[in-house]
Amino acid sequence: MKEHSIKLSILNTLADGNFHSGEGLGEQLGISRAAVSKHIKGIQAWGVDVFSVQGKGYKLAQPMQLLNQQRLQDKVNVPLALIPVIDSTNQHLLERIHSLESGSVCLAEYQSQGRGRRGREWVSPFGCNLYLSMYWRLEAGMAGAMGLSLVVGVAIVEAMEKLGIEGIKLKWPNDLYYQDKKLAGILVEMSGQAGSAAHLVIGMGMNLRMAGDTQGITQPWSCLSEVTEQDIDRNELAAELINTLENALNEYEMSGMQGFVERWNRLDNFLGREIKLIMGNREVSGVARGINEQGGVLIETEQGIETYIGGEISLRGI
Ligand code: ATP
Ligand code: BTN
């Protein structure tokens, strides 16, 4: 833990985007220049683009605005834990699920084991994106969870539109797309028994200004900096997304999917386009026709309109 706190202090200093000498950083932290150099390597391993110039010191490739627990907490009504370096924000909440208040949030600057659906990796470099998870106790039980995950996606895109950020679309079941590239992903994980309340962890990763090593990403991706020229305040955006999630989940508990089908279809990235659904070894091709009230995806094939639902389905444009 102490090791992390030294790296975080170094990053706090480097965040201004200026040069800082190894000697100065060492003095500030009471460690040697060699120790600073070792910590810089660790920082690079978190995916941060930091370089050194002889005689000048260390510098970030671009300034960094770090998340701030107090600023965030002042803007939201739910308990919030900012843990800068973590395995996975979803995992953190899942491990504590029975002691949490519904609505509790976990945020991180870096995830060593960020994950997507079906255990795939979510590439999570330090300080340039958002990684946030919220715990929600859903009285409707597991049956309500599918619709809920779609509602969350719609609510997030609508919140972005309110901030003047246009052009973000949805890919069933819960990805945010910009110009056919993945901008953000939502992962809903749950624990609960049939017939009782479901304990859900809703995780979202959104790319803001991704830098550093992105080799682990196996499909086209996008960043918010491509979508808008606005200088996005990470703390403001994180708080806005937390409030959006909380409102959407409350609304879903009260009214379910009512009204959401049209809201989803307006934002559907593939509506009217040729797609295929991949289900294990099986594929179905046709034209995307949006979603239904159960949260299933509709595809028009030669046999007519068919509905598919379930966590094992992948949708791909053709
Ligand atoms: P589907 O579930 O429909 O197959 P998917 O292809 O988006 O959707 P997921 O199961 O959601 O796949 O897994 C995450 C995917 O996101 C992986 O393909 C991975 O390469 C990609 N990915 C990982 N990190 C990022 C990131 N930071 N930004 C965009 N995409 C990412
Ligand atoms: C996907 O598209 O497959 C979903 C990606 C979800 C990533 C987020 S980042 C915050 C939370 N913690 C994780 O480990 N995953 C989710």
UniProtKB/TrEMBL annotation:
Keywords: ATP-binding, Biotin, DNA-binding, Ligase, Nucleotide-binding, Repressor, Transcription, Transcription regulation. It comes from the Bacteria. Its EC number is 6.3.4.15. Signal peptide: none annotated. Residues 22-41 bind DNA. Residues 66-253 form the BPL/LPL catalytic domain. It catalyses: biotin + L-lysyl-[protein] + ATP = N(6)-biotinyl-L-lysyl-[protein] + AMP + diphosphate + H(+). Pfam families: BPL_C (PF02237), BPL_LplA_LipB (PF03099), HTH_11 (PF08279). Acts both as a biotin--[acetyl-CoA-carboxylase] ligase and a biotin-operon repressor. In the presence of ATP, BirA activates biotin to form the BirA-biotinyl-5'-adenylate (BirA-bio-5'-AMP or holoBirA) complex. HoloBirA can either transfer the biotinyl moiety to the biotin carboxyl carrier protein (BCCP) subunit of acetyl-CoA carboxylase, or bind to the biotin operator site and inhibit transcription of the operon. Belongs to the biotin--protein ligase family. HAMAP family: Bifunct_BirA. This is Bifunctional ligase/repressor BirA. The gene is birA.
